[in-house]
Amino acid sequence: MDFAKVDSLINKAIASQNQRSAKIITNRYGLESKDIKTLAELGVSYSLTRERIRQIQAHVMKTIKEEMARHKDVTAFLKFVNGHLDKMGNVRASHLLAKDLKGIMNPNYDEAVFLNRLHFLAELIGEPKVAYGDDNWHDTWHNNPESHKKARAVVSHLLDFKEHNFSKFVEDAVKKFGLSEKTIINYLGISKEFGTGPYGDLGARHWIHVNPKTTRNKNFLVLKKVGKPMHFREIADLINKLEGVKRSHPDTVHNELIKDPRFVLVGRGVYALRENE
After folding, report:
1. Using CA atoms, how far apart are residues 269 and 229, in angstroms rounded to an integer?
2. What region holds the HTH HARE-type domain (predicted)?
3. How many domains does the chain have?
């Protein structure tokens, strides 16, 4: 799929507008930069009200859509994207879709700008649909509202799953939703509450092995993974080597090992998990 042809159409359509309108649209959608300007920010830049900026945006989008909607290269692009979404269960988190398509289309932009241009095109043509995210959800593309609804249900099931065991969750979800393992994992990717822990474990972000926030839980995770008793200084050393995990001082590690009933002293400064005793 050659994105360059579609990209060229976008650039020509915007260039056909007057200079101010073209600049407003470019900045509003981040077509040349990862930064996306709000209506208020653009209003300040051009000494216009937010409503006037919105009117300019709407007029330009309508004009460009009329020029591009039925163009064969745009139609081919949409067919390709919809085909890719079909393979993913009709749903894909925007940042993951951008990675997918960037690897295939090799556009002349960094990933953030490429994603902005994809969002612009989707909003311009009206398909596939983009559900914009918030604190809990990533921006998400979908071409089937029922599939998008089911993807959110899969995420809710993960967050409510009582056993913090990802393999068991996937096995249960495959049966519950009638989906493949690949689709289940893809659907989870639309949620910011789904993540990968410091040892590569998948699961909900409130699970200890995915996001160990406290020193106590870091102690537990390290001892669980190592599978044998360790001196508190060794535990601290391993904690401080974990990627994406805040460092812990050895004395803090030791104090938490003493206070937490999940751990048992088995030697001078050496601790084990009580469950393994």
Report:
1. 10
2. 213-276
3. 3
Residue 32 phi, psi dihedral angles, 5° rounding? -125, -5
Retrieve residue 33's tokens.
């930069």
Q: Tell me: the pLDDT tens digits for 192-239? A: 999 999 999 999 999 999 999 999 999 999 999 999 999 999 999 999
C-alpha dist (Å) from residue 153 to 37, 213, 232: 33, 26, 42
Contact 142, 148 (CB under 8 A): yes
107-119 pLDDT tens trace = 777 888 889 988 9
What is the pLDDT at residue 180?
A: 96
Has residue 128 been placed in a domain?
Answer: no
DSSP string, the chain: --HHHHHHHHHHHHHTS-HHHHHHHHHHHTSSSS----HHHHHHHHT--HHHHHHHHHHHHHHHHHHHTT-HHHHHHHHHHHHHHHHTTSEEEHHHHHHHHHHHH--SS-HHHHHHHHHHHHHHH--SEEE---SSB--EEES-HHHHHHHHHHHHHHHH-SS--HHHHHHHHHHHHT--HHHHHHHHTTBTTEEE-TTS-EEETTSTTT---SHHHHHHHHHHHH-S-EEHHHHHHHHTTSTT-----HHHHHHHHHH-TTEEEEETTEEEEGGG-
Task: Please state, in angstroms and rounded to a whole number, the distance separating the CA atoms of residues 120 and 112.
Answer: 12
Query: What's the CATH code of the domain at 58?
Result: 1.10.10.10
- Could you tell me if residue 49 is inside a domain? yes
Edge-first strand listing for the sheet containing 263-267: 230-231, 270-273, 263-267
Q: Does 2 score more than 80 pLDDT?
A: no
Q: Which residues is 270 bridged to in the sheet?
A: 231, 267
